[in-house]
Write a structure and sequence with these properties.
Shape: globular
Structural class: mainly alpha
Distance between the termini: 25 Å
Strand order of the largest sheet: 1-2
Number of helices: 3
Low-confidence stretches: 91-98
Largest sheet: 2 strands, antiparallel
Number of domains: 1
Length: about 100
């Protein structure tokens, strides 16, 4: 994977406000009822976000990026979707949701 592919996942590296153009953020902002989980008091560490398909895991992560982008260097925020893994032969392996 090269930098161009990573930039597709992380457009805020070039333009800070690009996160507002994300499809998950735009869809979330159209909803009448919104839920914002508060993790401001969470301990530092590595967390695993898991759950059934289409429950908002990606939207949750993108909202956290949007809320964090003013407090951190945008290039220090990395998002990557592991739903598609590129093999050395450049073919796609689609992971099934457990």
């Amino acid at each position: 994977m090269d930098n161009i592919e990573l930039l597709k996942f992380n457009p805020w590296w070039e333009r800070k406000n690009a996160i507002g153009e994300d499809k998950h953020i735009r869809e979330f902002e159209t909803k009448k009822i919104k839920y914002y989980p508060d993790f401001s008091n969470a301990k530092k560490g590595i967390y695993i976000i898991r759950g059934p398909r289409q429950v908002g895991k990606t939207t949750f992560l993108k909202l956290n990026i949007k809320n964090s982008i003013d407090n951190y260097d945008p290039r220090s925020i990395l998002y990557f979707s592991f739903s598609i893994i590129m093999t050395s032969a450049r073919s796609c392996i689609f992971l099934s949701t457990l």
